[in-house]
Amino acid sequence: MSMTTAQVFELASNQQLWAGHLIDTTAPVSETTLPNYSPIDNTCIGSIANGSQQDVNTAVAAARDAFEHGEWRRMSPAERKAIMQRWCQLMHEHMDELAALDCVDAGKPITECLNTDLPATIETFEWYAETADKVFGKVAPTGADALGLVVQEPIGVVGAVLPWNFPAQMYAWKVAPALITGNSVIVKPAELTSLSAYRLTQLAYEAGVPKAALQLVCGLGEEVGAALGQHMDVDMVSFTGSTEVGRLFLQYSAQSNLKEVVLECGGKSPQIVKVISHLNTAKTEGALLIAGGHIHDELGSGWYIEPTVFDNVSPDMTLFKEEVFGPLLAVTSFETEEEAIQLANQSDYGLAASFYTQNVHRAFRVASAIKAGTVSINGFSEGDITTPFGGYKQSGFGGRDNGLEALSQYTQTKTIWLVN
Fold first, then answer.
1. CATH architecture of 5-267+391-419
2. pLDDT tens digits along 125-159
3. Tally of CB atoms within 10 A around 394
4. Where does 276-377 sit in CATH, by number?
5. Can you say whether the dihedral through the CA atoms of 188, 391, 386, 77 is positive or negative?
6. pLDDT in tens, 24-35
7. Which residues, 6 or more positions from 143, have their beta carbon under 8 angstroms from its beta carbon?
């Protein structure tokens, strides 16, 4: 039964919202919980399950059995497509509820959740559902004495480790392509924002996705995330989050079964959600505050700071080098095109960049020179579901979300060579 936005808000005010494990098992799972605080007013809105390594082991065992012997992988692509389309219809019917969950959990405006995040989430699932029976293998140009087939097969058990900032949308970016290609998926949502992932997974079961093919293990990154990364029977992990934790997943891979790792990393740890230290550091390091810079205490105990602009930000300053999850803008002046490109490429990161020009030749020249996974011209954009999204340098590793390119990171290539 779908909840209205008002009902979600009422449950949040009474500390009754819940996100728990969804594991295909009859065995006991951890009963410990974590309080869930909303960044809107820093009040407790409920709790989430606090998973353990044993919970991960149980989920992986179920996922492996489902992949080797279960129905999801063996369904025809058209059958998986039909189930995902039913899932999308349920998302439409529950859109108000899902948007409200992200609103209270991530502190995002309800209008943004309703008008942007949830429509983009559903669009992602709809788009990947349509790819199920439209992506083909290849026939190699052999001689008459052999037939060479190049086919794509699901990679196996996939761990999807999500960030906190776009809970439902990042769930879709990873789960949709991984699931439609026939994998068994284990989702680890951010401990800060687990509510919509929990509800989306419940709706998946209602649509017909087998429980063992899509499971949810909630909890802390250092427990659940690390256990997924270190597990010998997880075939790949797709992670979005900080560069620091991304490095850990590469270590986990090297220390375990050399599982494939796909990273989309930002500029700093996403666990740091107040930004006052960056504001004070910018002042100390000599940046010129030209607008904003105040905390809105009158709005209550939530994490609010007004839009702030610093000028005279030099490349050696912290504000120039680090990503800030808040409304702090750094302004650095330049005089030539070459200097602008040099400044843009001076960062250790390269997720996305934007620049503005009316000169079409300059547009393509500069876009080609900037070291970033997405370069938008005359406006900020990350592209859409049809275009791959990911970073250069320390912002990304191993693959891309979105587009047909995302399918390749959840599959492996096999050559079948038939001799006549």
1. 3-Layer(aba) Sandwich (3.40)
2. 999 999 999 989 999 999 899 999 999 999 999 99
3. 19
4. 3.40.309.10
5. negative
6. 999 889 999 999
7. none
